[in-house]
Amino acid sequence: MIRNHPRTPSRPPRTSFRSRLARSRSRSLRVRRALDLALPTAWGAVAITFKLACPLAQETGLGARIASSAVFFAVGTGLILHVRRGLQRELRQLRRIAGAAQNVLLRPLPPRIDGLAIAAGQLSSDRGATVGGDLYEAIATDHGVRVVMGDVRGHGLAALATVAAVLGSFREAAHDEVELTCVLRRLERAMAR
Fold this sequence. Notes:
This protein is of the alpha+beta class. The protein is 61% helix and 13% strand. It is built from 5 helices and 4 strands; from the N terminus they run αααββββαα. α3 packs parallel to α4 and α4 (157-176) packs antiparallel against α5.
């Protein structure tokens, strides 16, 4: 009986730039996570070493207890500051990503559309909220200039997803539908989905 065996390539297949970049990012993320764990581990090792090996930590006098408390306070403060810095870094990154997504959705409006002067601005009601549910768009179509303005309830990425659905539906319906009531129906269907 003769069997057909698949040939094994003599050299490994070429990998794409994207896959190499993804592997590189994955490696750098693992290294960063390991380094993020290294500092708290070092702080903990210092505290345990002090408690077990330092003669001052073995004494029961008031001065020794104050010194031990100061060491453990410094270690605890270092750990808290390290965790806080990591959380702030992550929050900054999430805000950058959300801001970029919002900037893609809310494109700058031209100063004039078919003889109409238009302008748009966005101001969040919450001081810390950088990404909100505001939406606006103005489009010149064969049926006239179509404008939508709105505010989705909430803030953050959930509100941004709703803004994306409504604006995507409006941008398509504004060109397709002759009647404004039909445009509104399409927007309502997008909101229902």
